[in-house]
Amino acid sequence: MRLAVALLAVWPAAALELVGVDKIWDQAPHNAFTDLIRYKDEWFCAFREGKGHVSPDGALRVLVSRDARTWSSAALVTSATADLRDPKLAVTHEGRLMLTTAGALHEPKDHRHQSMAWYSNDGRTWEDPQPIGDPGFWLWRVTWHRGLAYSIGYATGDARLARLYRSYDGKRFDPIVKTLFGRGYPNETAMLFLPDETALIVLRRDQTDNTAQIGTAKPPYRTWAWRDLGVRLGGPQALRLPDGRILVAARLYDGKVRTSLGWLDPATARFTEALALPSGGDTSYAGLVLHEGIVYVSYYSSHEGKTSIYLARVKP
What number of H helices and E strands is found in the chain? Predict the structure, then answer.
């Protein structure tokens, strides 16, 4: 990781310019937990619709846009057996669109959650869901790298641990590190790969020890080094810019709750806030896409009263 760290040292943390922000959806009683991707020259934004932040009727709405300005519904994914939560989008090694979620299972049930995935060639028509990972583990996000899919799942039962999974086909996910992290209730994560093949994870924690962690590993990603970021983060997502800087979107808890963007320096294990987005109250869970020099940020917030979906455009 020395090359990547040296490159980051050239770029000090800098301000971000908010070019604009639009509310793109508010049709459900509660609209939340977003992700964003570009696929086949279109924009797709996925999020959960429901009666409340936690309610048994959660469904996954997928929006589509040609210009990231005018949005329409491409699909609504529902389940008769689970509250579908926190959707994430990825493109598989075969070039298909992949939608993942964890279903909070209705009674009767043997475990609380089952992670699952859907696949599509156009973002509008989706195949039947495929269960992924171990029962009772929430596979937070799937990251594809060199034809393989990686995901960090966290236990939602009595155990409090995170587990690293790998998949060759995006359907069968096998654990390659059964206890990736086990202190302070580890859960939501962001994962990316640096040019020297170092894998980097930003990990949320939620018990008495609730500061976020940064983990790094070299291939085959079985041995990890962890350091404390010293700040509490929720719903992290990370994006590496072409100049080597790493941008992180997260909910911050120090005083006023907000969804913010900041810089992550792996060399010093430091997060520096750079831009608070228009947000507050029930807010977080951003998606990040860099396109033509602008970072597009999907997120949700209740700062205008109703939990709604927003899209910000930020110049790094």
Answer: 1, 24
Task: Report which of 189, 256, 266, 255 is spatially closest to residue 229, judged by C-alpha positions.
Answer: 266
In sequence order, what are the beta bridge partners of 55?
none
Percent residues over pLDDT 70 in the chain: 96
Q: What is the pTM of this model?
A: 0.95
Give whole-number Cα distances, 165 to 40, 179, 255, in Å.
Answer: 27, 11, 35
Burial class, 193, CB count within 10 angstroms (exposed 0-12 / middle 13-18 / buried 19+): middle
Question: What's at 307, amino acid-wise?
Answer: T
pLDDT 10s digits, 201-253? 999 999 999 999 999 999 999 999 999 999 999 999 999 999 999 999 999 99
Contact by Cβ (8 Å): 259, 277: yes
Residue in 243, 305, 299, 248 with CA at minimum distance from that of residue 275: 248
pLDDT at 176: 98
Closest by CA position to 73, among listed 124, 120, 22: 124
- Cα 239 to the chain's mean position, in Å? 11
Q: Which CATH number fits domain 2-315: 3.30.360.10, 2.120.10.10, 1.10.10.250, 3.40.50.150?
A: 2.120.10.10
Q: Residue 121 is encoded by which pair of tokens?
A: 């060639």
| Ordered alpha helix ranges (H), the chain | 2-10
Q: Scanning the structure block, which residue is given the tokens 């937070």?
A: 140
Domain boundaries, the chain: 2-315
At residue 9, the pLDDT reads 43
Q: Which residue has the tokens 């963007």?
A: 261
